[in-house]
């Protein structure tokens, strides 16, 4: 009789534990879905457009011994509606990008995802404003094997429906 009682209790305990786990899991799943839906509802697309007159730059021949080189690209919100830069990232760890507002304030330094922190930017460009994206290339980052033609990119993702992504390209012939 006692043995039957233990078997029934074990079965009841196991069923109770499984039920508790399912209830807790369901609550967590519902809460997570609700928070994702509210975050998604906060993100709105813009009809604004960010443009650039120059998307490519060639540093020419540069030496590893002379250190880093940089170039500034101008971006402009040509509309009256604000545009949000959601992400900024580069194609290689040897390249970083900084964003400067119309007053020259640095709003972040961004690199290759997984190497130099977050690519999340959340930078607002009001209508008719001009910002700067500065590309910095380190020709010595890859060591002696980095000699030769180097082509790198900087990517900017926005909430603009008409121009959701900008890409800037830099290149250099790297020597020792």
State the main characteristics.
alpha+beta, single chain, five-stranded antiparallel beta sheet, five-stranded mixed beta sheet, flat, 176 residues
Explain this structure to me?
With 176 residues, the protein is α+β, with helices and mostly antiparallel strands. It is 23% helix and 43% strand. A 5-stranded antiparallel β-sheet has the order 1-3-8-5-6, with no helix packed on it. Strand 9 (148-158) and strand 10 form a beta hairpin. It is flat, with a radius of gyration of 26 Å. The N and C termini lie far apart (87 Å).
Poorly predicted ranges: 33-41
Helix content: 10-25%
Oligomer: single chain
Radius of gyration: 26 Å
Order of helices and strands: HEEEEEEEEEE
Distance between the termini: 87 Å
**Main sheet overview:** 5 strands, antiparallel
Query: What does the overall shape look like?
Result: flat
Beta-strand content estimate: 35-45%
**Strand order, sheet with most strands:** 1-3-8-5-6
Mean pLDDT: 86
Number of strands: 10
| Class per helix and strand makeup | alpha+beta
Helix count, per DSSP?
1
């Amino acid at each position: 009789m006692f043995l039957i009682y233990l078997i029934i209790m074990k079965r009841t305990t196991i069923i109770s534990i499984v039920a508790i786990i399912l209830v807790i899991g369901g609550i967590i799943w519902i809460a997570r879905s609700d928070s994702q839906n509210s975050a998604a509802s906060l993100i709105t697309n813009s009809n604004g457009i960010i443009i650039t007159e120059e998307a490519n730059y060639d540093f020419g021949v540069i030496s590893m011994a002379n250190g880093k080189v940089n170039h500034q690209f101008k971006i402009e919100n040509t509309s009256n509606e604000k545009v949000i830069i959601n992400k900024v990232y580069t194609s290689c760890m040897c390249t970083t990008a900084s964003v400067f507002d119309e007053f020259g304030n640095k709003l972040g330094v961004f690199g290759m995802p997984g190497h130099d922190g977050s690519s999340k930017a959340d930078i607002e460009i009001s209508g008719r404003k001009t910002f700067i994206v500065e590309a910095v290339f380190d020709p010595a980052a890859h060591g002696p094997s980095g000699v030769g033609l180097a082509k790198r990119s900087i990517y900017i993702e926005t909430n603009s429906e008409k121009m959701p992504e900008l890409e800037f390209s830099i290149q250099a012939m790297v020597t020792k």
